[in-house]
Structures
1.
Amino acid sequence: MTRDWFGSLQLRLALRVAALYIAATVVVIVVLMSRAYDTARSLSDGELMLRATALAKYVSVGPNGVPRLDLRVSAAYDVPSVTDIFAIRDAGGRVIAASPPQFGDLVAAWPRATDEPVRFSVRLENEPDRYNGLNIKLDSGAGPLSISVARSNESATGAYLLLRKFIHDVLWAVSFLVLASLAFGILAIRSGLKSVRGVSEMASAIGPHATAVRLPDKGLPSEIRPLVIAVNRALDRLEQGFAVQRKFTANAAHELRTPLGIITVALDAMEGNGELIKVKADVERMNRLVDQLLRVAQLDAIALDVSGTTDLNDIARGVVATMAPWALTLERTIAFGGPDVPVNIKGNGHAIADAIRNLVENAVLHSPARTEVMVSTHTDGTLSVIDQGPGILAADRQRIFDRFWRGKGVKTPGAGLGLSIVQEIMKMHDGRVAIEDGPEGGSVFTLHFTLAARPPLSGT
Amino acid sequence: MRLLVVEDESRMAELLKAALTRAGFIVDTVTLCADARAALATTRYDAAILDLGLPDGDGIELLGELRSGGNQIPIIVLTARDTIDDRVCGLDRGADDYLVKPFAPAELIARTKALLRRPGSALGTTLKAGNVTFDTIGRDARIGDVWLLLARRESAILEHLMRRVGRVVPKSVLEETLYGIGDELESNAIPVHVHHLRRKFAEAAATAQIHTVRGVGYLLVESKT
């Protein structure tokens, strides 16, 4: 069974669940990261603060009355590495000490620091990295100082290192979790919908010939049970309707045919004048009408088993053989032509014979005397009936299949049911009827059937 | 020839009896399954005409009963039911033919005669169509009082056609018959033989004709009077 994937409940649920998972994951990651960065930043702020305080402790008033940094500290900073930098300015804004010196030059131009620490970010000449730091005003042995401390991005503090590793790990873990739970979710959806799938497969098997099937409502989700129960009730009514219709058709057949049969036989026994011949013709017409009406009713009420395989040649030959004597009495002939190999098609042989019989009957009745009606089959599973009659107007070709439709001025007997019967039978076979102009006037009715994959097991 | 008509519709039974009697049969009618059983057990009938819907049972049941009891009497089933299932069921249960009501009595008579002509039946050794007669035992044919000189194959074809007057005899059936009569069969053998038969019919002013149903076979019909 082919399923429309985009209309599938499973796919719709899975898509929604996946979207939900991804959105939730993104939110979680963003929140986690921003919290983590906040923490890391306050940790590194604290560290910078400690350094600034430590530096302030080592500033004292030198012998020349000028504030200076303890030489030991300067020496400690005087290493090739430039991961940690600082600059100290006195209350007058003069740079007391700086490492490296170019940071001091840079800071000299800055406004003095306030009690409230201010973050900054700078880039030094000849250094690839960016430095993040704090500007703060601190008291020292040499009065208030503006201290600027910073650290390169690259040699981020332990907090940042941890953070990076954490994000790396979390991203992997989260994506894995998302995928795993998505897969689990889809599996859960599938198994949850399994019972629904089973029911829908059963439902698709229901047809006019299998009206007794009811869908099981056990083990179904509570949302779907009412639907299934309602469908089952509808099926009950449907089956009942079919049964009533079948019974009615059978009764009507019996009740209508018995008196007609009696009249037919009784009239036949009478010898008489022209009036009697007319009455006989009328009864003949009535018989035909009743017969066709019953056939229409049967086609409506009784499901046809079209699963069989049958040889179109056999059926057509049989119909021609049965109808040839009747055609002869009307001074017409019927001929058959077909390939030497069987034309195996799918369908119900009796119904197909019925359809062909109706076409041949029409063709014979609409042909001039002493002409031939040709029935031919083809290896592509088509059968055509060609007559030498007046042909069918293009405008009438659709209406001709309507029940009780008859051509204008048509004098032939019949109620206009034959072609609707043909069309009904073709519909049941997933086939169609086509009308074309005949090669030498007249019309061609072609029935298109589906070829069978394998030959029939036995004759028709 | 004696026929049993099993039909519960009294008017129909009456009319059938009249029609069949006019056609030269001796006819008994019964209306119940039970009566039919009794009649068949005590009298030798050449054929039975059986309506399916009977007051005391279904004709199909009776049919099955007769056949399983070894009774091979030719039976034509009459019915108002004509769904395909009904038809197949009737023939499966051993009906020899099947007629759906309403039908022309002529059709019933023709089918009854056809049944009685079938091999296995001792009757109908002389076949007739118009002024053509064919003796199936003596294997000679006459048109009026004129004896026809027929080749073996021609007489075989004529016999088949005469056994099924008014009905098409498939070409394949004729071919099978002719294969049985020695010699190779040329592809146009049957048309040639039929052509000869037609010429002989015409020469002797036969009141029956052989028609060709192209692609299917041949049929012999009595000329319209």
Note: Chain A is about 50% helix and 15% strand.
2.
Amino acid sequence: MAGTWGRFNITALVLGFAFLYLPIVLLVIFSFNESRLVTVWAGFSTRWYVSLLSNRGLIDAAWVTARVAFISATVATVLGTMAAVALTRYSRFRGRLLFSGMVFAPLVMPEVITGLSLLLLFVAIGLDRGFMTVTLAHITFSMCFVAVVVQSRLVSFDRSLEEAAMDLGATPVRAFFQVILPIILPAVISGWMLAFTLSLDDLVIASFASGPGATTLPMKIYSQVRLGVTPEINAICTILIAIVTVGVIVASIVNKRREVRRREELLALSG
Amino acid sequence: MRKRVSNLGGRVVVAVPYLWLLVFFLVPFFIVLKISFSQTTIAIPPYLPVFRWQDGISGFVQNLGALSFDNYLWLAGDPLYVNAYLSSLWIAAVSTLLTLLVGYPLAYGMARAPLSIRPILLMMVILPFWTSFLIRVYAWIGILKPEGLLNQFLMFLGLIDQPLVIINTTTAVYIGIVYSYLPFMVLPLYATLEKMDYSLIEAAEDLGCTPLSAFWKITFPLSLPGVVAGCMLVFIPAVGEFVIPDLLGGSQTLMIGKTLWNEFFANRDWPVSSAVAIVLLLILVLPIVYFQRAQARARERL
């Protein structure tokens, strides 16, 4: 066991995690507050969750967001995985430098710039802003995140397996689906999840790329937050936090199980 | 036969994402660049000059002459924009330093924790990163308001009699940035601290170094790659941040992301917002390139 587990370290961890979690915990607690005043506790109640059900605008926005996130995450995963394969498997093709630059630049690009530039593109080609333009915008920035996640897995991957498959007569396409994909699948899945949550969370790019009729949930939450803090927003935020938390925990358990099983299989093969 | 298929498959794998990024990333960037040189017309495209294929080369050259630097001169001449850029850089730099001060002890504590609980601690740092940015910023409004939880708590303890004014000040923006970007700082720091050989510190202490000077002479220099990566991951996005200054900073805080947003949505001045975006990009190019280089060097060392 490495290191001393001193008093300083424990204090640092407790304070650090308190800072990270306290605001979220308080937000969740006050979503169950009876009072309309968010910061004065007046007893436990689920009335704000009930009143959410009759808030047509929020439900519509949630539905739009879910569809945008699902479609954009799926397309972004396919494109991002292709980009990752292109970057790791083909060391030279024309314009590779530009390509890798375009894959990594959106990761650090300020959202206001990405949003503005996409909007100006949609206006220039005469595309009506709405559901489709938000989806296109989300695909574009989340595919880069997927590419980075998948690439890190592809780099550490033993190429001889793929070569062996091709020596045994598999076409490259078949080798990809039968050998490479199963190995990089955990990265592809976490890439999809990352793309999904990025799309779910995005306010800035969606505000630029969207038009009337395609208000996403973050846009709706933002416009209500500007009017003030209400327990209803706390309730919708709590639901979103719960969904994301359960998703992340389930995914990490599934990934862990897969990894353990793979290791056992490899041990059995080599033993 | 196999080779042809391989070429075809390979070409598709490269071409599809390549084309996508060309159309949706590079072309939009050039549109922004072009509009930033256009004459100001309030939200009525097309912006002059219009480039058309049928004009040919001579028309192209003529149109180039019609482009103007007016929007950039306007930015340089208006103290509002200059101040917004400067204060964005300042706020981002201060918040980056604060994030480092908060994140370093946390990452250090994690790296020295028993091996068995490290994955759980790591998971606990990553989890808030998955929850919505907007929600995490929103959570702080209820805490920092004059009648919010922090003031209630401090008044309950008897430390203050008057509520502190924190929301709608730069302090609130610092808190928001430190809070939102903390995982970006902690993860690279943890990665370098975890790999460190702690027998070096034991050796230093055996040779008479105090724990504090051992930290400054050994631990901190060895963790520098993580410090650089973490600081860049916080600083670069913080400069163009919109949500945090808008929700926590109020009208007092001047940041360029907010200025661009207002220029676009409130004033509907597209050419000026494009110019604001281009200048912001030029400011960020230097740290971005530096960061990419540092990352590439770190990868080579592995």
Note: Chain A has a mean pLDDT of 86.
